[in-house]
Amino acid sequence: AQLEVGLREALRKQEFQLYYQMQVNHAGSVLGAEVLLRWIHPEQGLISPLKFIPLAEETGLILPIGRWVLESACQQIKAWEKEQHAHELQLAVNVSGRQFRQKDFVAQVSEILDRTAIDPNRLKLELTESIVLDDVADTIAKMHALRQLGVSFSMDDFGTGYSSLSYLTQLPLNQLKIDQSFVRHIGTKESDATIIQTIIGMANNLGIEVIAEGVETQEQRDFLEANGCTLYQGYLFSRPVPREEFDALLTVR
Ligand code: G
Ligand code: G
Ligand code: MN
Ligand code: NA
């Protein structure tokens, strides 16, 4: 309850901050970043989204929070454009189920894109399998409408859900994101290596990109590259960092 009271006030008090975790290609070039929400609580310090996102979902606070994340990410894209700095970077934003199911979700995104006047191709939305499966027809309709606007999609945590291959081919996806639980076991668990190879094969057959998350070691990265996955995200490259640090990392690279 204490946490809920704080969460209600957090937007108004500007206690949320966006962190950015770079996504790189095989050559190490930064192609974009995943946007990860952080709550800097005045007394408790940094609170993980693992703790407050479920509460935000339950209470419906995820709606204004999710909207703020989208808007802030688009403003960041605009800022990079203006600074002639990193103007080609794509930002991937996590979308929650309740947020995506809103009747006017497409209109909200459209309005934010208009207001911030960014190139919609710079925005990618991450959906999970459970969001998709919750209402496949609604998901497909919304994805098509958003794709019309120029927005792209990544399937987050891929391989952990109840993926049915039949719905996958119906979704206008741009990318599959291999879940870090599989990446973690590269070199130690043969079955996870097989799952990774299968996901990469599926992405190739669907004609879409595949990115691996949670890449922590050179060995994992090399295994992924050897198997045809050339996009990576993980601590090997960078932890999620605040905007200033992210800008500094870009400059160094
Ligand atoms: O960095 P990490 O601890 O950031 O994130 C923990 C979980 O919180 C992940 O599952 C991530 O997808 C989720 N998450 C992080 N930021 C957001 C956000 O802005 N919106 C939603 N819905 N989930 C987020
Ligand atoms: O559920 P989602 O995939 O959106 O969440 C991404 C989560 O993974 C975030 O909590 C982020 O901080 C975390 N993360 C990103 N890279 C790594 C990594 O290399 N190792 C570990 N253990 N976690 C990571
Ligand atoms: Mn994600
Ligand atoms: Na994920």
UniProtKB/TrEMBL annotation:
Residues 1-253 form the EAL domain. This is Uncharacterized protein. It comes from Ferrigenium kumadai.
